[in-house]
Amino acid sequence: MKYLGAIMALTFLSAGESHGPAVVATLSGVPFGHKLDLEWINSQLALRQQGYGRGGRQRVETDVVQVLTGLRRGLTLGSPLTLQVDNKDHRIDLAPALPNVRPGHVDLAGSVKIASRDARDVLERASARETAARVMAGAACQSLLREFEIEVVAHVLALGGIETDQPMGRGYAAVCESPRDARAARNSGEFATINRAHDPALKQAIDQAKAAGDTLGGTIEVVVVNLPPGLGSHNQWDQRLDGRLAQALMSIQAMKAVEIGLGAECAARPGSKVHDPVHPAAPARGRAPYTRASNNAGGLEGGTTNGEPVVCRVHMKPISTLMSPLPTVDIATGKPATASTERSDICALPAAAIVAECAVSIVVAQALLEKTGGDSMDEVKRNLDGYLQAVRSYRPT
Predict the structure, then answer these.
(1) N or C: which end of the chain has fewer CB within 10 A?
(2) φ, ψ for residue 354 (rounded to 5)?
(3) What is the pLDDT of residues 42-84, one digit of tens each?
(4) E-assigned strands of the chain?
């Protein structure tokens, strides 16, 4: 995941579900002198493996981060930071062929692309096991962002058509007022919800889907608080922060739509009910020189942060592997068949919330370092302090 002009770049070196003995992520551009919170990274990796409705893989793997390069005595060196978790299951050569492609998965499109008659050749690299790398890298970025009092929190808004909270509603307010309390509430349950009142209904929905051999998706909200204005850019299409966030979120397996702020609802309202009035009063929260009466923009205008919390929502489709499989074809023979079944989840939405949180954290950390520059954490902090002083002086006294 690399953007033109980015200070921080992310590379996944190896990440198939059963493809190799390890999942590896390399972060380039982390400044010297950050005390990397390995306990935090491990806690995020653990959350990625939890949630009601998960399948058998989570009983196989126990992800614990190993630092291969870029760290000395707990501090980042400024050189590439290489993080790894082991794969206990790496049996790709022994895994059976999979010609009965699954509707909704990359099986058929990927096999056609490479002219293979065995979907096993593409499905392992497409596996969501790869998200362990995103979580390692994203949690490392969260560790860095927290030195600047920037918090990123994701939570489940809806699961299987059951709304657990309203976008920009109670969950949003809870995250803004106390992101750590919101995270603690989310982590105390099995569904990654902040408002826990609907958890029994969510459990029932997943149990019913499991009994029917079906799967469920839903909606995740990610909120970033205490960002300075001016991250991202309006100058080039590929530097716009909203576009970069959308790409990071849409690239997560099974995601089908992304919204920023009010999102699709903007298309149904007049401009007077969409755009956020600006008030000259002293800022009540955040680091912006002015306040907003609302945050329908989701903290981003023209691809640039405006000082309000950044709010993204991402919509996840149901997982493609069904225990009551759909009709398909056998690509080895071309004849009608029933789709293959693989070890899978009924619902991975709570785990996907952690992946989304970490994906957003990577992009936000990139944008922060683009704005501040600096080879060391001390230099980055000096640069950010100088910029924030200029921002504060922007509003006439």
Answers:
(1) C
(2) -70, -40
(3) 999 999 999 998 865 555 558 999 999 999 999 999 999 999 9
(4) 9-14, 22-28, 66-69, 71-72, 75-76, 81-86, 151-159, 162-163, 218-225, 255-260, 278-279, 291-292, 300-301, 304-305, 310-316, 327-330, 335-338
Domain residues for the domain of 288 are 9-95+131-321+345-394
CATH of the domain at 251: 3.60.150.10
More confident residue, 214 or 281: 214
Collapsed DSSP state (helix, strand, coil) of residue 176:
helix
1, 365 contact by CB (below 8 A): no
> Does an H or E element contain 121, and which?
helix 120-126
Q: Cα–Cα distance between 257 and 262 in angstroms, integer? A: 14
In-domain check, residue 302:
yes
Locate tokens 């299987």: which residue? 160
Nearest in space to 230 (alpha carbons), one of 312, 146, 307, 290: 307
Which H or E run contains 41?
helix 38-48
Q: State if pTM tops 0.90.
A: yes
Mapping DSSP to helix (H, G, I), strand (E, B) and coil, where does residue 236 land? coil
With residue 47 as reference, give the H or E element that holds it: helix 38-48
